[in-house]
Amino acid sequence: MSGDHGPGPGRDHGLDRDVGRDHDLDLAVRLLAGTPTHEGRDPQLLRRWAEAGEEFGRQMSPGPVPVRVVERDGGLAAGLLARYRSRPPVVEVYVDTVDRAERLVAELGWRHWFPAGSVLAAALAHERAHAWLHHAHVRAEFKRALGHTALRLGPRRLYAHVAGADELAAHAYARAACGLGRSPLLLTEALAAACSESETDRWVS
After folding, report:
1. What is the spatial distance between Cα 52 and Cα 46, in angstroms, rounded to a whole number?
2. Is-contact 67 89, C-beta < 8 A?
3. E strands along 140-194, which residues?
């Protein structure tokens, strides 16, 4: 990575130093609330979906997923830490963003939550979860767990997709699989806040 794409130690990067106190579930609800199609949704409904999504992710046990890992640069400019592509199955890891995230963890004093090297490990676990959720039978089970009913015919229900819920499941799986003290969603939000608008105005995975 060439150059410093973010604030160094001691600089004011506008982050709330107490952001680490936010409950992971509150972050999850906030993610859903900011996702298109959820405008005006009942906050309690969003919270139920967030709880179900995180629980599903924590309990996931992905089977072997033959995915090739490719390292790329330019993630800060694109707003990407890692990305799963299904055809062909490949995980793109953006090394400049991973490096910036590791430095940010040190700056914020979050090593007790995110040990050295855990950013890459969590990113790979996160994308492994996305690959697993891509399977039809897993996605169907996930929809049932969320319980968002699109259509009811007598005792039968047709469950609908909940936008943003797969991100919550992937974050929860990554936290559990890597033994992290907090959800990677916390770090993702902090990273977006630490980067200037010229670097990125969105963060996806």
Report:
1. 10
2. yes
3. 149-153, 156-159
105-112: long-range contacts at Cβ-Cβ below 8 A with a sequence spacing of 24 or more?
A: 105/187, 106/9, 107/7, 107/8, 107/9, 108/15, 108/17, 108/20, 108/190, 110/20, 110/182, 110/187, 112/181
CB-facing half-sphere around the CA of 33: CA atoms within 13 A: 13
| Residue 191, H or E segment | helix 184-194
pLDDT in tens, 52-101: 999 999 999 987 777 789 999 999 988 899 999 888 889 999 999 999 99
Angle subtended at Cα 35 by Cα 143 and Cα 140, rounded to the nearest 5 degrees = 10
Q: How many CB atoms lie within 10 A of CB 90?
A: 15
Residue 73 phi, psi (nearest 5): -115, 175
Query: What's the pTM value of the predicted model, to 2 decimals?
Result: 0.82
Task: Give per-residue pLDDT as tens, 178-193.
Answer: 999 999 999 999 998 8
**Exposed/middle/buried for residue 154 (C-beta within 10 Å: 0-12, 13-18, 19+):** exposed
Distance between CA atoms of residues 120 and 177, nearest Å: 13
Encoded tokens for 197:
């608008």
Dihedral (Cα; 130, 132, 136, 140), 10-degree rounding: -80
Q: How many Å apart are CA 186 and CA 175, to the nearest integer?
A: 11
